[in-house]
Every structure is written in structure tokens, then in C-alpha cells.
Amino acid sequence: MKNHPKKNKFLKKLPFFLVVGTSFSALVSCAVNVDSSERIEEDRRLSSNDVKDFVENAFVENILAQNIFKTGSNSLASEFRNTNSQFFAEAKAAFDFYQNYQISLDPTYSLKFIAQLQSTNAISASDFALLSPQVGYNKTFNDQAFIVLYNNFSTGIAREINKMLLVKAYLTQLDQPNLIKDSQIYKDGISARTSFTSRQIFQNIDPNSPDFFLIHLMLTKNPVQVWQFESNDPNSISTFSQLKIKDTNTFNTLLRSENINSRLTRKEQEFEKLGKNDEIETTLLLGYAGILYRQNASLGDLSFQFNDLRVQGQTKSGFLDPTSNLLWSAKDFQNFNLINQAKMFPVELSPNFDRKKTKDQVQISDFEIKIPAQIPGISYKIKNVIPTKDNDANKFAVGVIVEISINSSKFYYNVDVSWDENRTFYNPQINADGQDLPKIDSGIPAVSADLSKISVKYYNKLAPLYDKIVQENNTKQVYFSLENTPWNTQQEKTKLAYSLYLADQSGIFRDAKDFFESIGYKIETKDPIVKIS
Prior knowledge:
By secondary structure, the protein is α+β, with helices and mostly antiparallel strands. About 35% of the residues lie in helices and about 20% in strands. The chain is built from 18 helices and 20 strands. Helix 17 crosses helix 18. The chain starts with 15 loop residues before the first strand and ends in an 8-residue tail after the last strand. The relative contact order is 0.14. It comes from Mesomycoplasma ovipneumoniae.
């Protein structure tokens, strides 16, 4: 069955196919016959970015209509004209996020944007008359302006918003049964031909999770939100040589000088504010650098290595201690004296443990923490028991995650436990009198030990937790998940998806495009002049 969309005058001249596989029925085929002189002009037009953008947008619209919004016989354009439709509501929400993001980078965004459109004759005089009263410092466009900008392809807004909607769906909404599992990208990802690290990531995310590729992105691109200030200025070094960073006030003290570039005083805005594991109000922190990828992603608390992530009992947010690469939150500094008294204690199998139990049968109650004496304000509990992967040879091995509550702070450690009928093995082996936690001071020194520079950073590490246990055929499978992170709601995931996309637009859109191509959507050009990549 073929669905023929409404003809478009421009589209009729484009020699390309939009093709979907048998599970998605749509086909658009267009061709044009021209003589040699017309052909030269046509080749010039077809090789332009405008045509490439048009073809790419048609590809995206096709997926949005067929797979995401399921508009049936209605075109995406007719859904947009209906301002009560789901598509219009989500498109406007995406546009609001987009324009607020641009304004956060440059408060004069709307002024410059309309000036650029006018200089290229992309908008008519009547459209300019409607739009110009809405531009200005920190000003945003309203619904009426959005409709004008979206409906005029030359503004680029429709193309950008459609991409954002496609990426959001790719990262958070792939909920059709077996859609991911049956895709070629997933099959290639778990193939023995794939590198060990890449295969390990694919195998440790539940393919039935609608946010599969959001988790995959986190594990491969290692994103972190960053607030930072660095300086080699001798006067600043002398002024702040005794300063310790422990909260919003002490951090912002570094950036309140009149000489600081306004870009360094950027703040996280409410529209983009992401959840974190800290009580600090990050919208008040200066020096917001946005989301950055692969920031020392193999070191300390910033590590995204599988063996480090699998033992993390919580997400990590805090000020970076450059000597240990650990992140300490504002609440940790409030509790620093008590943290320095806390210890890690041994974990053991309970005395009556049935040694015939496999890793898939053991429970939290099968283990106990050997605490010699309680310290007021510090408590211990086993948070989780994580079985090894099903394909591991040892059926009698688990990781035991211990939670230490230290007033409002929490610390986690892991003990790997394996057993047979006669013996038990623990790794690490912790002495009966306990092992100290990493030491924390009352704050992070603002100036380096050799007095050569100021370097202070606050991170919100955007990583999943390895704590989703799924019972499958009498075995337990463990996966990375966002269920117990600050980003477990659809609202948080949407903000996360848009923020990650705007931090790496071409790369993440390419990933989304590759996935939808792998399930049957294709652009097939019949003309070598047209190259879509």
C-alpha cells in the first residue's frame, strides 16, 4: 500500500526517493527531464545546501508522521495547522527550548536572527512587520511568530524543530515491541564482530527500554554538566589563596570581579535545569559551561568505565577535588567531620546461608555487614545485590552494594562475593576494624598547591545506574537504567534529550538518522548531484 503526500511544487523537481521498509508504508518518487542548458542550472540547484536541507527535512517529516505521531491520512502540515494537535504542542515546546537555549548563549539572539533573515530576503515585508516587534534583548517569539517561522522553510526553524522532535523520540520514546531488538544497529552492536567495549554497552542496556539510546549515548559520549573557573592572574591567585570552595557563595566569589568576561558569568537557566544529586541550587552558580562530552571520563568519579559505573550506588554531582578526582557535594562539605569518621566494613554471607543458592536466587537477607560499633549519625544497609551477567561461567558470584548514610550524605561501596559448597571469597577483603573512606576537607582549595593557578569545577555527571534487575527464564539480567536517577521522568528525559542534542547536533542527529534507516527508512537519490550525508 502506498500513501502519496500532497504534492509540493519544489518537491516535484527533486530526483530522490523517500523509502520505508515493509513495516512502514510510504513511497515518494520524483523525477524531472531537462535539456542540457536546463540541466546545468538544475545541477547547480541540486548541489546546493538548500536542496539537501529540503530532502533531509522530508525524510524527517516522513518518520515523524508515520512512526512518531502516527498522523494516519493527515499530513504533518495539517497537524501543524491544528494548534490543538499533539504535534503542534510538542513542536512549540521544542521551539521554546531552542530559542531559550540560543538566548542563554546570546541575549540578542532574536535581533540577530531576524536581521539575518531580512538580509537574505528569507521573509516577506508582512512577516517582518509581524516579527520585528517581538525581537529584543532576552525577548522570545510567541505562538503566532512561531507559526510564521515554521511555515517558512527558508528560516530553518521547521528543519531544526523537526530534528529535535526526531532526536527526542529516538532517545526517549522507542516503545514499540522489539523495535530496537530487531534493528540492524542492535544486532551489529551485540555481534562478536563488534569491539568488546561497544558490545558490553549494548548488552548491558535493556532493549525493551524506550530510553535505550539515551542510556547508550550517556555510556558512549560520557556527558557532564560543567561549571568552571580558571585563572593564572597573579592578583587573583594572591587574593583567593586561602579560599576553600564548598558552596554557591564561595564558588561565585571567584567570578564576581568586574574583570571577568560576561561569558564566564553565564548561569544555568530554569528551562534547561537538570536534576542532580546535591542540594545546591545550580541556577545560582556562575561559570556555566553547559554540557561537555568526555571530560576525563576514565578518572575517579568522572569515570564512565563499566567496572566503575556498575558499583556506583548513586549519581554523582559536586565540586571536583583535583588530587583525587572525586566529586564532593555541598552537603558532603557540611558533613565532612562525620564522613572522616565513617568506615567501610566487611560484608559476609549470613551464618545459615544455603550454599546451593545461585546468583539468581540470593537476596539481600543472605548477607550481613559486620559492624563492630555504631557511630551516631552513621548508618549502614545493603542497598542491592547484583548478579554477574548470565553468560559468565561462575553461577555463584554477585556484587553487594553497601549504602552508608552520613547525616544527609551517602557513600556506597561494593564487595564482590563468590562461593562454593566449602569456601567464600570476598573482593576487596576488608579488615574487621574497617577501612577509611576517602578523606574530605571542609572545602576544595581554590588555588593549586604550587600557587600557579586557580582551577575550580563543579560537575553534574549524566550517567545511568547499573541497578535494573529483570527476571528472565529463572535468571536475573542486570541493566543500566535511569529509574533511580534524577532523570527518571519524561519531563527530565525530554530536557536531557534536547540539551544533549544541542551540545552535539550533527553527531546525535546522525545517530538518530542511522537508526531509522536501519529499520527501513531510506533516502535513495537517483541523481549523483544530490548527496545526503
